[in-house]
Design brief:
With 204 residues, the protein is α+β, with helices and mostly antiparallel strands. 20% of the residues lie in helices and 42% in strands. The chain is built from 5 helices and 10 strands. Strand 2 and strand 3 form a beta hairpin.
Length: 204
């Protein structure tokens, strides 16, 4: 277990599975979002992960929650969401602390490499610090990530313990008649900046 966030009857548990597939080590990062009943028992759990890290094939996680909800975010998470939807790289990077990081739990750090074969579903990599964020996020904005088109990101659930916000979302692609379910975990510093954005989805 790498992180755990509990609030408002929900628990978001981030896990790293260390696997050996065909003699080769693989890591699968998973988020389990659990709904907890009043008696403390788990009522329902949703799992999010990038299956392409196992079989090197593009997959899509269908919608798991139906209804969009109005979410009140921490101010810096709100700024992050706004910059993402507007594809504003400068404002997006400004939400992060100098040593903050974005982890898309995908493969290539250079997004142009991911365009060689989109069927691999490699997604975004790990970018630490403003210089790496400019490189990776700038490419994402230019390429046109599935998360970025305005009006196509549907918030379906969110909870926070005051430091980390767990957001379940759907990426809407009406031109493909497709919906992709995902989750993001946003960790905020005591200075009110983004320490980490850990995103788990298979749409890209």
């Amino acid at each position: 277990m790498t992180h755990s966030t509990q609030a408002d009857g929900y628990v978001g548990t981030e896990l790293d599975l260390r696997l050996l597939i065909d003699g080769k080590p693989r890591k699968l990062s998973i988020v389990a979002v659990s709904e907890v009943a009043a008696d403390g028992k788990l009522e329902r759990t949703r799992l999010y992960y990038r299956r392409a890290n196992i079989d090197l094939q593009q997959h899509y996680r269908d919608r798991m929650l139906e209804d969009e909800v109005q979410v009140t975010f921490h101010p810096v998470v709100e700024k992050y969401q706004k910059a993402l939807l507007e594809r504003n790289t400068e404002e997006f990077i400004a939400t992060f602390a100098q040593d903050g990081y974005f982890d898309g739990h995908g493969g290539p750090v250079d997004q142009q490499e991911g365009l060689v074969d989109l069927s691999l579903g490699q997604g975004m990599g790990l970018y630490v610090g403003h210089d790496e964020l400019y490189r990776g996020i700038g490419q994402m904005m230019e390429i046109g990530s599935a998360e970025s088109p305005k009006g196509r990101l549907e918030h379906v659930n969110a909870f926070t313990d005051g430091t980390t916000t767990v957001l379940e979302f759907n990426i809407l692609r009406p031109e493909e008649n497709r919906v992709h379910a995902g989750v993001a975990c946003y960790e905020v510093t005591t200075d009110g900046l983004m320490h980490a954005a850990r995103v788990y989805d298979e749409a890209w």
